[in-house]
Batch of 2 targets.
Target 1
Amino acid sequence: ATFETHSDRVKLSLPTGETAEILLHGATVISWKAGGEEKLWLSEKAVLDGSKAVRGGIPLVFPVFGKTTSGPTSALPQHGFARVSKWEVLGKSSASATSICVDFGLGSENVIVDFRKQWPFDFGLIYSVTLTPMSLETKLLVRNEGNQAFDFQTLFHTYLRVADVGNVKVLGLKGVTYRDKTQGGAEIKEEPEAVEVKGEIDRMYVQAPGEVQVEESGKTVYTVTRTEDVKDVVVWNPWENASKNMGDFGPETGYRNMICVEAGTVSEWNTLEPQTVWEGGVTVSL
Ligand code: BG6
């Protein structure tokens, strides 16, 4: 297995043909190919030059999910600064004939002064992306390098590619309570066996079971598993109207080819004491 570094991205390749591409901007995974097919959805209007967050792929959310109105994250942009900061390639941490892992780093000293002022904590992030023939794993290590505790949220904002979201079922969430952003955050218990997408959907499933399956036309196309500290799962599709209002969303019918199944720890704050570490990851398997 190999990895190549280009000026703005890193490309991982396996001898069996699978590849992944990660932009240094946001350490955003923008492509994952297996079996000759792209597995992630990337908007054809996505801006990849570092001037804004990437629409598609796997943007990494840190240290806040969405927007807050109070507390130290309230001045930060939506979903925090990790996805709009330039990361460093730390290098390959493991490789064999059947897998490769590359690490990326972002520390308080690497973020722009504005973010540092808005969120004045000393932190270090290590983001590891592992490609195997049948899976892609993303793992984050958060280290508090300062002498005061901080609160954070993090989430892997994965845009999975599907042939037609109308035929998709998300399984494994029955009985879980979700906060529905399309209904002002109302808390609702999931009753049906499967989540189906027939219009705009924006739900945070709080403390979901460790495995969620995405089925398309009766066939499991993705299995999403998480480590224990990655507690929640967000299911999002903007559908027609909301995607029209995003300047970087294309083609117009692109919402039919994607479903975001986003694993994270976002329903509450994680407090990280000085000189301690949090680690969490998610694996998408085919
Ligand atoms: C999802 C949120 O995770 O991200 C949605 O639940 C939000 O509410 C979406 O619209 C996209 O956010 P952004 O900042 O990338 O447009």
Note: Residues 113-118 form the longest helix (6 residues).
Target 2
Amino acid sequence: LPEIALAGRSNVGKSSLINRMVHRKNLARTSSKPGKTQTINFYRVNGQLYFADMPGYGFARVSKETKAAWARMIEGYLLNRRELKGVIQVVDVRHPPTRDDRMMYDWLKHYGIPVIVVATKADKIPRGKWPKHVKQVREGLQIGADDPLILFSAETGQGKDELWSTIAALVSER
Ligand code: GDP
């Protein structure tokens, strides 16, 4: 089955996004404690594809060794997995992308891996400020004009349909 991986810093809302996308409350464990997931967790969706939830990056309070092991595992997966169709990179719409967000995005683009950027937690800012924040994300990551950026909320379900159709397009073309 095709796979779509999820990348994002710890606690950004990856598990919540997966749960919202697949109608489950707690299929993917959400946690208020950052940096818990250290392996890639696979979630099968409708017998059609897998979401591969990768451990969050940019968690400051882990050792160098842990970071290096993380990088080896993630790179091995992203560069060698035949089933991988693309990556959903999740960022927090409230804040400018971090250095780690930029590094991840640049790395994926460098290797030609398709990226769907999802700016989540939209419910946490007022509607009138959405355009400004979306622009901040687009410019912070230097997302190309033709590359997808989806405003999302795991709380309200906003962006869910758009994300599904973007995933479907990726899966069918690659
Ligand atoms: P992960 O570490 O990236 O998997 O992040 P989680 O999915 O565990 O989410 C971290 C925290 O952010 C939890 O307390 C979630 O309830 C909260 N959260 C995630 N997505 C949203 C969202 O879209 N809106 C709001 N209001 N809270 C969210």
Note: The beta strands are 3-8, 41-45, 49-53, 84-92, 115-120, 149-151.
